Amino acid sequence: MYDLKGKVAIVTGAGRKAGIGRAIALRLAQEGADVVVADICREFEEFPGYGLGMWEGLQETAEEISALGVRGLPLRVDVTDSRLVDEMVAQTLDAFGRIDILVNNAGGVVGPAPVLAMDEQAWGKTMAINATGTFLCSRAVARVMVGQGRGGKIINISSIAGKAGRPFLAAYSAAKAAIVAFSRVLALELAPAGIQVNAVCPGEVDTDLQRWGWQLEASFRGVPYEEVVGAAAAKIPLGRLEQPSDVANVVSFLASGESDYMTGQAINICGGLVMH
Ligand code: NAD
Question: What residues are annotated to the active site?
Fold first, then answer.
């Protein structure tokens, strides 16, 4: 366990029960941080039916955090809207007075398709949720961190899709690669302020988002869901699907003082699927 007592963290995209964001938020809270959990809490009007975190899930996670003896605060945010991002940061400061850790976890894949059939709006939305959202939240929080003069940690959730190409996921892969490049630049710019910026690249994590992806693949290929999941697991050198806690373990290290000499890295957490 790491010591995050007295630190304040924001984790975006933490509203879904089986999600990586919730696992990270609970892990940071177990290590002593007060945690703001933020999510969109409404449907995308232009993509109805796309799975997103809702208020009830966010509130439950905040309650679980408070039950650990630290403070949990649920907030609504659309990470693609700079006004709402600034509001999230202002509400965090009102409630907790400081920000030490930002985990840009909100993300997703809208309208996966082969490039030749890819819808322009779906491309834009996927870039916005993943890449623009990471930029807007990082900018708003880094301004606060620099002003505080106490350093800080920014951890961006990329994906191995950002390192290795994945059919049907051009927008997602491009956005996650953008997050890696953005993290490197931000790491250089914020190094003098003692703020470390790193990205992590998970692999095949068993979450609602990934299950939806496996389901789409199963219906597209006309094979049973279990076959797709089994094949995904069989490709992983460490021999099992990834769990949200596998990601939370590494993120909590990056949020702690134990990683103070690391910045600008993009660390694979994928059971050995990708090694570069
Ligand atoms: P998830 O769907 O549980 O989490 C994504 C969260 O982001 C959702 O709660 C969603 O509501 C939120 N979100 C989406 N758009 C938003 C917006 N505009 N504003 C605020 N919140 C928004 O899925 P997950 O698998 O836990 O994914 C978490 C992160 O991990 C994502 O960035 C995802 O791309 C990344 N990732 C997941 C996998 C995987 O295999 N599941 C692999 C690599 C990377």
Answer: 172
